[in-house]
Specification:
The chain is of the alpha/beta class. Strands 7, 8, 9, 10, 11 and 12 form a 6-stranded mixed sheet that branches. A hairpin with a 2-residue loop joins strand 1 and strand 2. 37% of the residues are buried.
Length: 301
Amino acid sequence: MLVHRNGHPLILISRAIGQRFLAVAISMVFIWSGYASAEEPEAKRVLAIGGAVTEIVYALGEDDRLIGRDSTSTFPPEATNLPDVGYIRALSPEGVLSVNPDLILARENNGPPEAVDVLKSTGVTWVDVPDDFSVEGVDENIRIVAEALGVPQKGDELRRRVASEIAAVQQRLDGVRTQKTVMFVLSMRDNRIMAAGFNTAADGIIRLSGARNVIDVFEGYKPLSDEAILKAAPDVIVTMAGRGDHGADDEQVKSHPALGRTPAALNNEIIQVDGLLMLGFGPRTGLAAQQLASAIYGFES
């Protein structure tokens, strides 16, 4: 729509049209810069979005091609030396494109959708790495990343190693006679408990560790009432270690009016875990399952 202000014409562009215009403009810049071509050369400037994706690239030995990462990619420690393009769910086209990637490997829980749509329209190769909190999901993610990097044989080797590590944990769990129940507390800010239901990374790692997620009535991460906590009566409580509002130590759990009265708290069965390790579902999944199973059932690590 064309309007005038102070005698000068102004073009007003709707938000949707503006986003499409931005996408076209960015695409043209990349075409002129030589990023868009009929052929697909080997990616030399790789951006990893998602902690597990970054870990896979490092585990494949292809980290020399990484030129950036998102803020959730903090392992291995050297990854933090890479430019940070922002939080996985709050990406901006400008921030992502500032590192000039020729390949973007992104965990699918990225966003916002408008920014991702713009980025996918630029001509830069974008590869989605699914969220799948299972053994099969880890295997498939390694395959996807390895093929995108053009190193399928390295991917096969890593897949075999990870599968072997997970199988070793499952073999050890064969001797467990009584399965324990676990409540995974994602956060307890202001004493309000946010717990993990089914179809979550927490639920997946609990299963791989030979235990049962005591919260099986909802999907995702949701708040729990004191009554629901007492009714669940978990044998074990798992909390996040050292992550600001997400963290909770033994004393915080025991002093909570409901958590403190559960069998887990009364029996000192409170486990603090590294969130990225336990919830990442990347190449360290076998290690995560082994550590959690050892803590729950008293195995030697």
